[in-house]
Amino acid sequence: MSVKTRANKQSGATIKDVASAAGVSAMTVSRVLNAEPNVRPATRERVQAAIKELNYRPNLSARNLARANAYFIGLLYDNPSAGYISELLIGALNRCRTSGYHLVLESCGAAGEDWAAEIAAMLRTSNFDGIVMPPPVCDNADVLVAVAEAGIPHVRIAPDNDLDRAPCVLTDDRAASRRMTEYLIELGHRRIGFVLGPEEHGASRERHAGFLEGLAAHGLESDPALIAPGAFTYKSGLEAADRLLSLADRPTAIFASNDDMAVAVIALAHKHALDVPRDLTVVGFDDTQTATAIWPQLTTVRQPISDMASAAIELLASHLNGDEAAAARREIRSEIVIRDSSAAPAS
Questions:
Q1: Tell me: the pLDDT tens digits for 80-104?
Q2: Count of CB atoms within 10 A of residue 282's CB?
């Protein structure tokens, strides 16, 4: 009896009928219904075709019960940039929603003196099936030890060191920063200011290193007076901009190592009656929503933050599902997005 004939004779096809028609297990059909990532594309298409032919309608009560037992994923974060956290959550939440997972957010900030011990105690009593750790938490020794002692599978996003410690999602901070620096040099800029991120943040060091490599590749030396400290916050960007724009021989371009600080540089440039980009080029890093919410819109490095979070959830799920072929690393490349805040220096 053909699939189509059987569908005509029974309006209440079961998950076993779909599995039989597609030549797979009922568990595989369930994974397709829940949009789980660890199903081969060809298998997924075969199951979806059987569902359509049989006019199968899943039992909503059963699916809700199954989802009640879905993975609980913890996301441990500590990043002062609201734009970065926003993009991170968009990617993680969207991936968890389509996969039927539950996402739980936990701040790892130093609100109390013994916050590391509090995180360790929380992990010991949590019901997390897995954990995702973006920077700088992914490089925090205390948190890494606590996660290991709790025996919870985890994925690190953009770790700075010890890359073989756990599955990770990587990006090219250093190379992207070098490309942005060389873009500024190609425009004709020679006095380029740079706003650092926090010292404890691996991405800060990588972006600074890329900046120095870009200068060196074109025979330019880094002027210490043009390097200003920052903390990935708008306030620190204002302070850095005030320092750089107060120099007697101020830079013609400023490269801030995240968008929040770059936006602050543009704001202070306006206060100094400087036109951006005619009098001062400003570029950033991350391409968060704030990059297009300011005038002029910001030239920046588009770091695929949302995609990285989504990939981390997918990578974690693969390992939780016992996929022995699952990759241990995934790299997502950044790109430069040129908008209105950059131009050649005034003659």
A1: 677 788 888 899 999 888 888 889 8
A2: 30
* CATH assignment at residue 185: 3.40.50.2300
Query: Do 184 and 298 belong to one domain?
Result: yes
Highest mean pLDDT among 7-21, 99-113, 183-197: 183-197
Q: Shortest CA distance to 144 belongs to which of 242, 155, 170?
A: 155
CATH number at 40 reads 1.10.260.40
Kindly state whether residue 341 falls inside one of the protein's structural domains: no
Number of domains in the chain: 3
User: What digits encode the pLDDT tens for the residues 50-69?
Assistant: 888 888 766 544 544 454 45
Give the phi and the psi of residue 80 in degrees, each rounded to 5: -75, -10
Q: Which residues form the domain of 188?
A: 173-303
Q: What pLDDT digit, counting tens, does each position of 172-207 carry? A: 999 999 999 999 999 999 999 999 999 888 889 999
